[in-house]
Amino acid sequence: MASARSPPPPAPLPSSSSLNTSSTSSSTQSSSSRPSFSPTPRQRRFNPDLLRPYLKRLLAAPEITSAVWDRDAEKLVKRAEEISAEVKRRMVDLEPSGYKYLCQVSVSERPRGTLSSSSSTNTSSSAGPGAGKAFLSCVWDPNSDAILSEVYQNETVVVTVLAVAVRIGY
Q1: Which residues form a coiled coil (predicted)?
Q2: C-alpha distances in angstroms, 15 versus 1, 31, 34, 68?
Q3: Is 111 part of a structural domain of the chain?
């Protein structure tokens, strides 16, 4: 029986002074130094507007729009997992390299009596009055990274899709 070996310790993190965040000095770096974490001008920003119609189409599918929580909760949970994988694949299709992708899909029962006539000034999702909202706060590069959320609701169900694209620095 082979003895279990512990993994090697992680490499120490570089100090903030050793990280190059300037794209102009990257040409003077040695090949052994770390790459810049800021996108160069030729790197494109992930365009969430290309993904939004796809999310809306997924949320407009009959298995979502006709769902009733008490009857379809298990099916919705399974469908949420499938939607998450489908969104990730679509993000890769839109921008095949240079990004890490995250997609979270949540399904929940809509609390009874939550119909609301108030409106929200939030423009990050297409949810109507009374719907749940999805927000994410991150420290990242607004010139390359993107976030998008869409929410669907009916009388008993709320489905939220949150998609994030974060540019990798190499």
Answers
A1: none
A2: 42, 18, 11, 53
A3: yes
SS3 31: coil
- Say what the pTM is: 0.63
DSSP state of 99: E
| Residue 57: both structure tokens together | 């189409």
Specify the number of domains making up the chain. Answer: 1
CA dist., res. 37 & res. 24, Å (int): 12
Residue 69, helix vs strand vs coil: helix
Q: Nearest Cα to 49, choosing from 131, 126, 129?
A: 126
Tokens for 88?
A: 């990730």
Main-chain phi, psi angles of 151, to 5 degrees: -130, 135
Reading the block at residue 142, the tokens are 């607004």
* HSE, side-chain direction, 13 A CA sphere, residue 7: 3
Q: Is 74 domain-assigned?
A: yes
Q: Which range of residues forms the domain containing residue 136? A: 48-167
